[in-house]
Design brief:
The structure holds four protein chains of four kinds. Chain A is mainly α. Chain A is built from 21 helices and eight strands. A two-stranded antiparallel ribbon of chain A has the order 1-2. Chain A has a two-stranded antiparallel sheet with strand order 3-4. In chain A, strands 5-6 form a two-stranded antiparallel sheet. In chain A, β3 and β4 form a beta hairpin. In chain A, α14 packs antiparallel against α21. Chain A starts with a helix and ends in a 20-residue tail after the last helix. By secondary structure, chain B is mostly helical. Helix content of chain B is 60%, strand content 0%. Chain B is built from two helices and no strands. In chain C, the strands form four sheets. Chain C has a three-stranded mixed sheet with strand order 8-1-9. The termini of chain C are far apart. The longest helix of chain D is centred in the middle third of the chain and has 35 residues. Chain D starts with 14 loop residues before the first helix and ends in a 14-residue tail after the last helix. The chains are: A mainly alpha, B mainly alpha, C mainly alpha, D mainly alpha. Chains in contact: A-C, A-D, B-D, C-D. Chains C and D meet through α3, α4, β6 and α8 of C and α1, α2, α4, α7 and α9 of D.
């Protein structure tokens, strides 16, 4: 038969194809993710030829810390691989200061790596490293490790450890050592100089793509600066030197470990970190810069200025750049103007301060603080919306007149006048009729105003009505049907919450009246020591007409349970009914 | 390939379908020729058999 | 006229102008019954207490389950609805801790079960419930194939009266006034479910998204899925992590089968015409072939006849000719003979004459 | 071979009869259990898999494989391939029996079988594709019965009735083609309502077209397959007319089937392109899809072509078996394998023993009836009194 061979051949091919497909089926449908380690901070992918259009070999996975350690065992240090420039700064790059052409770069890696490995082999080391000819030992594909890398920035306490350190030499004629790291470029002298009290954050100039005359990018600047110094300390056998490996700064777990260690240290210092010696202000009066206008133009109505406790916020933030996100040399209002400017990315002053989801804005940062379990019990249940509630404006934008009218007696039982604070802000945030508050133009005047009128008067401890005025146990029996009435240890709950906010200046400042805190549960009701009963709004009978507003039963459960969840209270479990209301015995 | 709108998706699939249809037309003609081309003359041994002994199953 | 009532009238007039226009513009775009109720399930509220399961069981007089309702261990196994359970709560472990979701009939706006039933046993009611009529059900279970949410279940162990079982949205009980809310909604201690007009529930859900940024996945499951459902879900975790399939698409069941159903009349209309035509062409071919054959036969016949005649004529002519020739020959022969006879007679007469002369 | 069908009373205890008898007895026992204990007593069906092997095999495959009836009848009467005439009767008989068995199987599968006429006579769910299938199967069964009746009448010798029916042949055939087109395609269209449950490689808006086109291939292949079987076992019932045309039928059908399979393959590729499902090919399901497409569609198409060109009857016969298997694989894939593809494997369905017994039982009943009819009535031969009258 003419076609027998052809048919047999074709059928055979199909059969083989089927077999292959079946065998491969699992492999094909699997997403290959397993079999890799959880990620390393010290993994560097060396791809010298990346600039070339044609890829020649897969990138080399270089485990930096493995090499650092191996070199240390041979009593070698960074200098074995990294060279120093004329000023003694160690280069971030391997065996070079500048990048040569790609081909030369390739040779540089090949020659130097293999030379060292060959020496190791000659010295009969256990693991000399890949030798010449063992290409695939370095050029591995697919990658067997993954990069996991955290930013290794300086936070306040790490910063303190450095500027407080005796190991770092003092600046000439001064008792600080800031100039050892902070510098500035003097265009006239064409060199780096240090100007005291005008220190700038590194990131302001050393961006990832720096502009002239800045040479080093962020990575080069940090590594050049830090590693050189740490290395010197090591060479001089100082009592301690900073880390010389990758993971100590960039490893996630190591970083957490370090933070825990710092927290302990902070504890030893009674939780107060010494302030930076940069002559930063203690208080600031935040007020909008008025645009230039002709003399006879009507003066616009503005919000009251905000007195800002700079000192307090230094303690509460991780680093200066949390708020001063671009530079330390200008104030917020320079870039973020009332109308927005190009410099400020057209983000107006209002947005810059109130954006609820920005980490640099006041509201955004405070919102983040509310996620702390101690706060979240009440605050997570509060609707946020995209704007802060209007009633809270006056907490920051304080009318100095009203404050001056108020009695200096803080522990007044009569708290009704606290609500007056809200009035000017509630009227669409405009000033009440009458004489406008005069904001001093000069810095000192503003500081004085901020100090005298506002910050000094703010409470140092949380306000609360007298303990005996707080109902002790509240019996919830309106719904008792299947179960016995629930007994709510009302006073105990309130007092335990007071305890949690004892040392929290944010809470003591913003819980501005003795009954503010009651509103965590007694929400949406006027400030009062005797808030209306829950049933006033939470009607159990019908869902219609109160769409979305829980009935009484749900209101109680939602309030209690969501608060317990948010505060991380494991007991009682939400589904353990009888732990709150006992089973009825029939 | 990623599609962001139904238009984009259809633009892709319909184009591919048109191309495929063209291929199928050509393939159909070739197949027809293959199917209808008889290599062997009509004097196949099977056909000479009359009725009962036409040799099935051989 | 008071300003307020004037404004009201203006609004009404405006609405009156607007509504029929949009309705006319989208004649085949149906929005279901007006103000149809629905239920909004908020996954961030559910605590997994199984009270809704209990209430459902009691309200619908379902048999007591093997595992009592106060046993929460069962949440660790993934369950689905079955013929004695119209609703189940499942626990899903997520990075943020356990999350619970209730599952039951979603009472689609365009139910796949109703679309698929060949005896129309399912009906979407104005009160949103998708009702089942067991008096006509044949038990083909196509509804179970069709339902994208895997809700209808079957009483496989009944020999004579097996039914399809699913949540009724407590339609019968609410219509009779026995209940004011679906049993599960009524009993929920957290009001994780809200019963109300569907469009208002959508608004409410969006209000919650706005009020608690970051708490929810900001989309409402069931708003568009499979053409929209009366049950809506909002959740703090992606829907696919709480067992809600996000790949269902927005096409409703009637849309999905519309193409195939539309082809039916086309086949009925086109096939007979086409096949009849082919048949007619084949018949005609056969007829023409037959005619041609006949003609050929008669032509051949005529030709043969003519030929035969020609032959006959020719042979006849030949025969005549030969006959004539023979006659001629005979005549010639006779004449010749006669002439010869005459000559002989003459010779004889001459001779006798001579003899007479001689003999004289 | 002829001993198998020896009419002699003593030889009733042939292996064939014993096996058949055992299957029928087992089937009857399971039938009793099914109708007293409910579906749950005999099947592995559950709430995720409401349709099991009875639908996959008995309904979907049964209907597809009974497609020989309308394809042969259409080829002979409509398209004018007169030489296929001898193949029509066996094909129609097979189709009729096939559909009758499908309906019988449905009585087992639906919950309340006595309500099967409901969708037609009590309350019509016209939006349902199953309604359309039901209606068409009901009508087509009637048509097939009418098409088959002349055979019965010839056997019984009722000439007038027979002649009246024969006159209606063309109408019946066209009606049969229309109905077959509708319900063959609608069986596929049943699944268009569940895009989320059927794996994307098998789900397509073209499902009805796929089912229809593949049913033609199935029908043609079944005619070839049955022809060769009948040749083996029922040879003595065949007249010289049947035998003379048999080879032509086989060759013609092989060519036709090759052509149809080519079209089917092309359509499937278009379906794949249209939904842009190529990426799924690189998965377990994709491998299985390729097996179906290459081994059960492309390969038979090629083998049929080779067989037809070489007049290789053995190859054609084996290819027919391969094609029939392919259709069965396809129907199982759509209704069971690729259905509920998102479920974990422990929730997947596998038929229970008793379900399989019923399926085998129904097939056996079909074979027995086919033998009964074809050994008595003028199926494979022309009735001497009606020679040449068609």
């Amino acid at each position: 038969m003419a076609y027998r061979k052809l048919v047999l051949g074709l059928s055979g091919c199909l059969f083989v194809l089927v077999c292959v497909l079946f065998l491969q089926a699992d492999v094909m449908s699997m997403i290959s993710s397993s079999g890799k380690d959880s990620g390393r901070a010290d993994l560097i992918m060396i791809q010298a030829m990346a600039k070339q259009t044609t890829k020649q070999a897969s990138a080399v996975q270089f485990l930096h810390d493995a090499h650092t350690q191996a070199l240390a065992e041979q009593d070698k240090d960074c200098a074995a691989c990294h060279i120093k420039d004329e000023s003694g700064t160690i280069s971030y790059k391997y065996m070079r200061l500048e990048d040569p052409a790609a081909n030369r770069l390739k040779d540089l890696y090949h020659d130097n790596c293999t030379a060292c490995h060959a020496e190791n082999a000659k010295a009969r080391m256990d693991n000399p490293g890949p030798q010449i000819g063992e290409c695939r030992k370095c050029h591995v594909e697919p990658a067997t490790s993954t990069q996991a890398w955290v930013s290794g920035g300086m936070d306040n306490i790490l910063h303190y450890i450095h500027w407080d350190s005796d190991l770092i030499a003092k600046d000439e004629g001064k008792d600080t050592n800031c100039g050892q790291c902070h510098h500035e470029y003097d265009e006239d002298k064409q060199e780096l100089v240090y100007i005291q009290f005008a220190e700038e954050g590194c990131r302001s100039c050393h961006t990832s793509e720096p502009k002239e005359p800045v040479k080093a990018n962020l990575a080069e600047a940090f590594h050049g600066q830090c590693v050189t110094c740490h290395l010197e300390n090591k060479e001089t056998q100082a009592e301690r030197n900073g880390p010389l490996d990758c993971a100590s700064c960039h490893g996630g777990p190591q970083r957490l470990e370090m933070q825990a260690k710092f927290a302990e240290k902070l504890e030893e210092m009674d939780g107060v970190l010494p302030r930076l010696p940069r002559q930063q202000p203690d208080v600031v009066l935040l007020a909008a810069k008025l645009p230039e206008r002709s003399k006879d133009a009507t003066h616009p109505t503005l919000m009251y200025p905000v007195p800002f406790n700079h000192e307090l916020h230094e303690q509460a933030t991780d680093a200066c750049r949390d708020c001063h996100h671009e530079t330390l040399k200008s104030s917020c209002t320079d870039c973020h103007t009332l109308q927005g400017s190009e410099q400020g990315g057209y983000i107006t002053l209002e947005r810059a301060m109130h954006a609820p989801d920005s980490k640099s804005s006041c509201v955004g940062c405070h919102n983040e603080m509310k996620q702390d379990p101690s706060c979240a019990g009440c605050h997570a249940a509060m609707p946020q919306g995209t704007e802060p509630p209007a009633s809270s404006c006056a907490l920051c934008h304080v009318n100095p007149d009203i404050l001056s009218q108020r009695s200096m007696e803080r522990q007044s039982v009569d708290y009704t006048d606290y609500t007056e604070m809200l009035i000017p802000a509630q009227a669409s945030g405009r000033q009440p009729a009458g004489e406008p508050v005069v904001i001093p133009e000069d810095k000192e005047g503003r500081v004085v105003l901020a100090h005298q009128l506002i910050i000094d008067r703010r409470g140092q401890e949380a306000l609360l009505i007298a303990e005996e005025d707080i109902p002790n146990v509240v019996k919830i029996d309106v719904l008792a049907d299947e179960y016995q009435p629930a007994e709510l240890p009302h006073r105990k709950i309130v007092m335990s919450m007071m305890e949690k906010m004892q040392d929290n200046s944010l809470a003591t400042t913003f819980h501005a009246t003795p009954v503010t805190m009651c509103q965590g549960c007694h929400h949406n009701s006027p400030l009062s020591a005797e808030p209306p009963s829950c049933q006033t709004c939470h009607d159990q009978r019908s869902q219609e007409g109160r769409l979305g507003r829980p009935g009484l039963l749900a209101a109680y459960h939602i309030q209690c349970m969501s608060c317990h969840t948010e505060m991380g209270l494991e007991k009682p479990a939400a589904t353990d009914c009888t732990s709150c209301h006992k089973q009825k015995e029939n | 390939m990623e599609f962001n709108s139904m238009h984009e998706f259809f633009m892709h699939t319909k184009t591919m379908t048109y191309l495929l249809m063209g291929g199928i037309l050509v393939g159909a003609i070739l197949w027809w020729q293959f199917l209808m081309g008889e290599k062997k003359p009509i004097d196949n041994p099977h056909r000479t058999g009359e009725g009962h002994d036409n040799g099935h199953g051989h | 006229m008071k300003r307020r009532s004037f404004l009201g009238l203006m609004g009404a007039a405006g609405a009156g102008l607007a509504v029929p226009a949009t309705a006319r513009a989208a004649a085949k775009d149906f929005r279901g019954y007006h103000d149809t109720p629905g239920v909004l399930f908020d996954g961030t509220r559910c605590i997994g207490c199984r009270k809704c399961e209990l209430a459902c069981n009691q309200v619908n007089n379902l048999p007591e389950p093997e595992v009592p309702f106060d046993n929460l261990e069962i949440l660790n196994t993934r369950r689905r609805t079955d013929s004695t359970t119209f609703t189940v709560v499942n626990k899903f472990d997520t990075p943020g801790g356990p999350v619970y979701r209730k599952n039951q009939c979603n009472h689609c706006l365009e139910p796949a079960c109703a679309s698929s039933c060949f005896v129309s046993a399912f009906q979407k009611q104005p009160d949103s419930a998708v009702d089942y009529d067991e008096t006509v059900c044949v038990g083909c279970r196509y509804c179970m194939i069709a339902c994208p949410f895997e809700i209808p279940t079957y009483e496989y162990h009944k020999a004579f009266t097996p039914r399809v079982m699913k949540c009724t949205l407590c339609g019968p009980q609410m219509r009779s006034g026995e209940l004011r809310l679906p049993g599960c909604v009524q009993v929920c201690p957290m009001e994780a479910m809200i019963y109300g007009p569907r469009n208002e529930l959508l608004t409410l859900a969006r209000r919650r998204f706005a009020a608690f940024p970051g708490r929810y996945v900001e989309s409402i499951y069931g708003e568009h899925e499979m053409g929209g459902t009366s049950w809506l879900y909002i959740s703090g975790t992606p829907f696919s992590q709480v067992g809600l399939r996000e790949d269902l698409g927005t096409k409703s069941a009637p849309e999905l089968t519309a193409g195939a159903l539309a082809a039916v009349p086309v086949v009925v209309g086109v096939w007979p015409v086409l096949l009849g035509g082919i048949y007619a062409i084949n018949k005609r071919k056969e007829k023409i072939a037959a005619q041609e054959q006949q003609q050929a036969v008669s032509a051949a016949l005529a030709k043969a006849k003519a030929e035969a005649k020609e032959n006959l004529d020719a042979s006849l002519a030949k025969a005549e000719e030969s006959a004539n020739r023979r006659v001629d020959n005979e005549v010639k022969k006779a004449v010749k003979e006669a002439l010869a006879k005459k000559e002989e007679e003459l010779k004889a007469a001459e001779a006798s004459a001579t003899d007479e002369e001689e003999g004289k | 071979m002829s001993t198998v069908t020896n009419d002699d009373f003593k030889s009733y205890l042939t292996p064939f009869n014993i096996v058949t008898g055992l299957i029928i007895i087992a089937g009857l026992i399971v039938t009793v259990i099914r109708f007293t204990g409910g579906l749950g007593a005999v099947t592995n069906l559950d709430d995720n898999y409401p349709w099991g092997i009875w639908i996959s095999f008995d309904l979907l495959c049964g209907v597809a494989l009974a497609a020989g009836g309308y394809t042969t009848a259409a080829a002979c009467y409509v398209f004018g391939f007169k030489k296929y005439h001898s193949a029509v009767r066996p094909a129609v008989l097979t189709a009729f029996l096939g559909y009758a068995l499908v309906v019988m199987a449905l009585h087992y599968d639906v919950g309340r079988p006595w309500r099967l006429p409901y969708p037609i006579f009590v309350q019509q769910g016209t939006t349902s594709l199953l309604f359309e299938v039901g209606l068409c199967v009901f009508l087509y069964l009637t048509v097939l019965f009418l098409e088959f009746l002349p055979t019965l009448f010839e056997w019984k010798g009722w000439r007038k009735l027979r002649d009246a029916l024969v006159k209606m042949t063309l109408v019946l055939v066209i009606f049969g083609v229309v109905l077959s087109t509708l319900h063959q395609s609608s069986l596929g269209a049943l699944y268009t309502i569940a895009p989320s449950k059927l794996h994307p490689l098998w789900y397509s808006a073209y499902l009805p077209v796929f089912f229809f086109v593949s049913s033609i291939a199935a029908g043609l292949s079944m005619v070839i397959f049955e022809g060769s079987l009948s040749h083996k076992y029922l040879h003595r019932m065949m007249d010289s007319e049947y035998n003379r045309n048999h080879d032509d039928v086989v060759l013609g059908f092989a060519k036709g089937c090759s052509w149809v399979l080519f079209g089917y393959f092309a359509l499937k590729m278009i379906g794949l392109t249209y939904d842009n499902n190529w990426s799924y090919l690189a998965s377990g399901f994709g491998a299985w899809f390729l097996v179906e497409m290459l081994c059960f569609v492309a390969l038979p198409a090629f083998l049929y072509a080779v067989g037809a060109r070489d007049k290789n009857f053995a190859l054609i016969k084996w290819t027919a078996i391969l094609t029939v298997l392919g259709i069965v694989v396809n129907r199982f894939n759509v209704s069971l394998v690729a259905f509920n593809y998102h479920l974990p494997s422990e929730d997947k369905y596998f038929p229970a023993m008793m379900e399989i017994i019923i399926s085998v039982f129904i097939v056996t009943v079909g074979v027995v009836v086919f033998r009964f009819v074809s050994t008595r009535m003028p199926v494979f031969f022309e009735h001497p009194e009606y020679k040449g009258q068609h």
